[in-house]
Design a protein that fits this description.
With 306 residues, the chain is an alpha/beta fold. The chain contains twelve helices and five strands. Strand 1, helix 10 and strand 2 form a beta-alpha-beta unit.
Length: 306
């Protein structure tokens, strides 16, 4: 109810009207036509049909949802890293990102987060992303969203179009963070093996109001996921004595001992992941490992019991 949406019948009536200005042409025809959000908003403003001014946050999330059709079908998941790179480069830029030259520079920086071939042939990112930069500036200036909030809202907006095999779901991340904080002492140190996009570490940093975890470390092999995790941790855990995301194989990277080790391992080699977690625990009574495994691994002949 808080979002400025209209039913398809109302939109159909507006399209049949002969007023001035005319309703924008669709960019994708059919039974469920699609329109450019910025063109529709201008038409609503000029005709006085807008009930309320959409918030910068609402526009930002819906502008992000316009990106998947621009990407190659096999590269849609890379939009998650690309949009994170857009936010980081925009925040670091001293100039207004609505200027074409500045947009070009920001897009160039964001492309360094992903491999080549993200957009379909014929797509001009500087022109196509113009609405995105407009709403990004509104979300920053008018809604005063932080860089971390901008990225979280963007990733949520993309969740219906992309999926990440390198990210623990939000409810499970919150559960693991709660367990990690329960009974933890000061100067606690935590490592997340195969941290993906850093969802668990982000939740620990958000929930740890007393600052018990002075060290938060993630290990991730996938480059794009590691970049997102690093951005999340850099914006969330600024007051930690030590926080970092290491890129590499969690089995072979050199690590010290930790009071908490957590992992959401792949289905294969659960026993191996368990042994790796235990090997990284410091030799104290307060140390514990948190693993997300399937029920069959806990059965009498399961991987853990075996």
């Amino acid at each position: 109810p808080d979002e400025p949406t209209k039913s398809p019948s109302v939109v159909s009536h507006w399209r049949k009207g002969k007023g001035d200005p005319l309703f924008p042409d669709p960019v994708a025809a059919g039974r469920s036509p699609k329109f450019r959000l910025d063109e529709v908003l201008v038409w609503l403003r000029d005709t006085g049909k807008s009930i309320r001014k959409p918030s910068g946050d609402w526009l930002w999330r819906h502008s992000v949802q316009l990106l998947p059709p621009l990407a190659n079908s096999d590269r849609a998941n890379s939009l998650r890293a690309f949009i994170t790179g857009i936010v980081e480069a925009t925040v670091q830029s001293p100039s207004d990102p609505r200027h074409p030259e500045v947009r070009q520079a920001i897009i160039h920086d964001a492309h360094e987060w992903v491999a080549d071939g993200l957009f379909r042939d014929g797509v001009d990112p500087v022109a196509e992303l113009e609405p995105l930069f407009e709403t990004l500036r509104m979300a920053l200036d008018e809604d005063h969203l932080t860089p971390g909030e901008l990225v979280e809202h963007a990733l949520q907006a993309l969740s219906g179009f992309t999926s990440s095999a390198h990210s623990t779901t939000a409810p499970l991340a919150a559960l693991i963070a709660e367990l990690a904080l329960r009974g933890s002492h000061r100067d606690a140190r935590m490592v997340d093996l195969g941290c993906g996009e850093g969802t668990v570490l982000d939740r620990v940093a958000a929930f740890d109001a007393k600052g018990r975890y002075t060290t938060l470390v993630g290990v991730e092999e996938d480059d794009e996921s590691a970049r997102i995790a690093r951005f999340r941790l850099d914006t969330r855990a600024t007051d930690r004595a030590h926080h970092e995301i290491l890129q590499g194989d969690a089995f072979y990277i050199d690590l010290p001992g930790f009071t908490t080790v957590c992992a959401d391992p792949p289905a294969r080699d659960v026993a191996g992941w368990t042994n790796r977690c235990v090997s990284l625990l410091e030799p104290t009574a307060r140390a514990r490992a948190l693993l997300l495994v399937s029920a069959r691994d806990l059965e009498s002949d399961g991987a853990l019991c075996a």
